[in-house]
Amino acid sequence: MRPPVILKTTTSLLDSSSSSPPCDRRLNTLARHFLPQMASHDSISASPTSASDSVFNHLVRAPEDPILGVTVAYNKDPSPVKLNLGVGAYRTEEGKPLVLNVVRRVEQQLINDVSRNKEYIPIVGLADFNKLSAKLIFGADSPAIQDNRVTTVQCLSGTGSLRVGGEFLAKHYHQRTIYLPTPTWGNHPKVFNLAGLSVKTYRYYAPATRGLDFQGLLEDLGSAPSGSIVLLHACAHNPTGVDPTLEQWEQIRQLIRSKALLPFFDSAYQGFASGSLDADAQPVRLFVADGGELLVAQSYAKNLGLYGERVGALSIVCKSADVASRVESQLKLVIRPMYSSPPIHGASIVAAILKDRNLFNDWTIELKAMADRIISMRQELFDALCSRGTPGDWSHIIKQIGMFTFTGLNAEQVSFMTKEFHIYMTSDGRISMAGLSSKTVPLLADAIHAAVTRVV
Amino acid sequence: MASSFLSAASHAVSPSCSLSTTHKGKPMLGGNTLRFHKGPNSFSSSRSRGRISMAVAVNVSRFEGIPMAPPDPILGVSEAFKADNSDVKLNLGVGAYRTEELQPYVLNVVKKAENLMLERGDNKEYLPIEGLAAFNKATAELLLGADNPAIKQQRVATVQGLSGTGSLRLGAALIERYFPGAKVLISAPTWGNHKNIFNDASVPWSEYRYYDPKTVGLDFEGMIEDIKSAPEGSFILLHGCAHNPTGIDPTPEQWEKIADLIEEKNHIPFFDVAYQGFASGSLDEDAASVRLFVARGIEVLVAQSYSKNLGLYAERIGAINVISSSPESAARVKSQLKRIARPMYSNPPVHGARIVADVVGNPVLFNEWKAEMEMMAGRIKNVRQQLYDSITSKDKSGKDWSFILKQIGMFSFTGLNKNQSDNMTNKWHVYMTKDGRISLAGLSLAKCEYLADAIIDSYHNVS
After folding, report:
1. Residue with the larger pLDDT of the pair B71 and A3
2. Contact assessment for residue A301 and residue A99, using Cβ atoms and an 8 Å cutoff
3. Quick check: A3 pLDDT over 90?
4. Per the database record, which ranges form the Aminotransferase class I/classII large domain (chain B) (predicted)?
């Protein structure tokens, strides 16, 4: 029995932003001044000096998104037996995108509704959507909602919610440091940096056990300055799939409250992680129950399959209704210069489903089916690896939760699997379980087995 | 069920809003001094107060020091309008098209496009960061003309944005990152959100003279002077057509002179095109200013919106275009725009983009759209004419009201001051912003005579 493979992973939190100094632009402007008038015609594009004429010449090409790169490489691969485990979206057993039946039904209703128009909605979004989103995450009987201590604004899915929350905190909160788990979703540091917050990290994932480094987490948050903001994945941690247990959540809550840290939850998978909306919201509700303040960003991309419709919400739980009202007024001043008001279509779909008991029940059935399929993929993969006698402890595959799994494979092993087996995943060893099916599990198991036995 | 929900949604207004009592300053008049403004002052005040609250007991809310933000003036107008019980009341503050019955209007081509989408069974997958490819192609071609050399040579970087505002914000963020310290000149007056957008993007701005209250027309001399005296390489924010809030546009000859000056000073034009096709009824005519600059080889940024011309207000569909002098730099610009959008909202909403792509990409729907745009623009022109006729037939003072006919688009600057605008509201139940702007889209032919009475009374009897 070989010892478990130690994952070598380095989290790069900041993109290097290299930009030309302003004098370069002035030089280009000066050069352009001496070009003859005729240079402004078509011939300028054919001229070898045309590039230097542009006021945008000093812009550098931005690095390609690594996850997008995986999908691009996958699309280019001519092999008939290729597998895309990099895509962060649900797929059916046939490997196809899925539009939920309830979504289709609501869209038909919306189109048939002659009273429906396209008028601007408020800066904070559809009132029904906001109210129902808060109830979904906090629970309909939540005291924070009963006391009007919650302000909820519709945003562009999870990313938009995080960004609005980040900009709000940068403007109005006394501490401008946010602690992110190591690792975390690749977009998190960019979102918060551009929002005006400083990013620090706390230990989260333990490569040795492929589980939670709970002691490291407690130590790092315990030494964070009072008032610091702490980003917490509500469930189905991205990219590792490692979540705290409820007992661990209670200890985290006690630590955060005793240190007067501000929790900012990213809830992108409610219902999609375990199949139960209430179970997946439990950590957030634990914090709300103690009466303290917190932020939570919600996304309906995964649990309702509304990826491209960009539906999400930011909720801020305050100490009093009066504070919540003032907070909302300032949130509007963050949103208006960003995009004026949010898009109506996706929010109309969500509001209709959350409001109608029958549609809601049908949604929970479809939601559980998606979650169950992912859970069964985890079990099938684990069983397949065991049956092959693949070296190492693979129990983390069934312990981890949600769409993503940190396999523990290193970059060389990942590269090998791509080259030899046409299996595409990110180099940190993360695979999207949603991209698997019963037909493709054996292929993946074969590839993992070959990788760990042939590539050190 | 959906019907009652939509009925409730249409009344969804934040309870924290109230009628604005803020006294807005008059737009800057005369003089050569450019007002410089950087950073949101109200936020600085909020920030310091937020820090002070840390000194008090730990049980106090961490957000206790946050003050109530000032109410939105335009929203306040609509709020007050709703609260008014008068049956002759008129809402001229709303910035959206209305039918002759003063109802919201969903274009027929939009309904057809949505039905097409449902029939096709489109999925809901994420769009690329830059948006729907078919939309980006259609929107650049609509703006520049499909046979424009800039398009053929792939010198246009187009990224789908959240309507006009989101597109302007992406452009502003690009300026902040790659032209640090560069100043943006905006017209006086301009759409109120322009200042918010550049402030939040940390881009310094100042104003150039534009509106002349004496003639209720364009202060072309002042405009030229101010743009000429701006630092070389400044960004000049220009309304492509149908200037908001004044309705005053340069003539083609004046546009040529503006282009001359911008070339001379190596300024970079940043066009806000929110009304293409909706202003005059002709897509090509309304895009003429942008096309003139591009034909001159001037590199430009252009923010587009489909809120008004396709009636897609709440679908939030627009684009930011950067027309560069080479395909290589256009590609680099696009990569940087994507890099800005990714941490803002990841990728844009799909529904509105599909509607636009389907309408513009389908010759039958495209022609129907043009007909509907002509109808909307035509109704507004008729209202202008009717209002002018009503005023001139009633007003015997000899005052020149011809600016009403010269102005273009949805908005009209009446020349009324704050007191006169208040009189319009208090005495005549006509709701408008305090700067004297009225939205002609909220006016019907049947109401023109009533409005004429109100304007004449306010102009002559209130000082």
Report:
1. B71
2. no
3. no
4. 89-455
- The DSSP code sequence of B75-88 is HHHHHHHHH---TT
Nearest CA-CA distance, residue B395 and chain A, Å: 36
The pLDDT of residue B378: 96
Contact indicator for A55, B268 with CB cutoff of 8 Å? yes
Phi/psi of residue B156, nearest 5 degrees: -110, 125
Output the pLDDT for position B121: 94
Tell me which residues of chain B, numbers 355 to 374, contact chain A at a CB-CB cutoff of 8 Å. none
CA distance A43 to B142: 24
Nearest chain B alpha carbon to A170 = B47
Q: How many whole angstroms separate alpha carbon B429 and alpha carbon B440?
A: 16
B126-361 folds as: Aspartate Aminotransferase; domain 2 (3.40.640)
pLDDT at A198: 95
Environment class of residue B214 by beta-carbon count within 10 Å: exposed (0-12), middle (13-18) or buried (19+)? exposed
The span from the CA of B91 to the CA of A295, in Å, is 38
Please judge whether A326 and B345 are an interchain contact, meaning their C-beta atoms are less than 8 angstroms apart. no
Distance from CA of B253 to the nearest CA of A (A): 20
pLDDT of residue A53: 67
A185 is catalytic: yes
Q: Which domains does chain A have, with CATH numbers?
A: 65-97+371-452 (3.90.1150.10), 119-354 (3.40.640.10)
The answer to whether A383 is a known catalytic residue is no
Mean pLDDT of A382-392: 96
* Mean pLDDT across chain A: 87
Q: What number of other Cβ atoms are within 10 A of residue A148's Cβ?
A: 13
Average pLDDT over residues A259-263: 95
Can you point out the beta strands (E) in A78-169? 83-84, 150-155
Confidence of residue B298 (pLDDT cuts 50, 70, 90): very high
Instruction: Please pick, among A185, A249, A363, A394, the residue that the annotation labels catalytic.
Output: A185
For B327-370, the pLDDT digits (tens) are: 989 999 999 999 899 899 999 999 999 999 999 999 999 999 99
Domain ranges of chain B: 74-106+366-461, 126-361
CATH topology of domain B74-106+366-461: Aspartate Aminotransferase, domain 1 (3.90.1150)
Provide the CB-side half-sphere exposure for A105 (13 A, CA): 14
Helix (H) or strand (E) holding B300: strand B300-305
Query: How far apart (Å, rounded) are the C-alpha atoms in residues A90 and A268?
Result: 13
Quote the DSSP letter at residue B53.
Answer: G
Q: Quick one: pLDDT at residue B21?
A: 33
If you compute the radius of gyration of chain A from its CA atoms, what whole number of angstroms results? 24
- Smallest CA–CA distance, residue A289 to chain B, in Å, is 16
**Amino acid of residue A114:** V
In the stretch 258-277 of chain A, residues with CB closer than 8 A to chain B read 260, 262
Asked whether the beta carbons of B412 and B404 are under 8 A apart, the reply is yes
Using one digit for the tens of pLDDT, what is the confidence trace for A281-301?
A: 989 999 999 999 999 999 999
How many A/B residue pairs have CB atoms within 8 Å? Answer: 331
Amino acid symbol at B174? L
pLDDT band at B79 (very low <50, low <70, confident <90, very high): confident
A352·B5 Cβ contact <8 A? yes
- pLDDT bracket for residue A52 (50, 70, 90): low
CB contact under 8 A, A351 and B61: no
pLDDT reported for residue B4: 34
Is A249 labeled as catalytic in the residue annotation?
no
Residue pair B319/B158 in contact (Cβ under 8 Å)? The answer is: yes
* Chain B residues closer than 8 Å to A227 by CB: 54, 62
| Contact status, residue B312 vs residue B154, Cβ threshold 8 Å | no
**How far apart (Å, rounded) are the C-alpha atoms in residues B251 and B10?**
39
What is the pLDDT at residue B289?
98
Average pLDDT of the residues of chain B: 87
Instruction: Write the DSSP symbol of residue A2.
Output: P
pLDDT, residue B233, reads 95
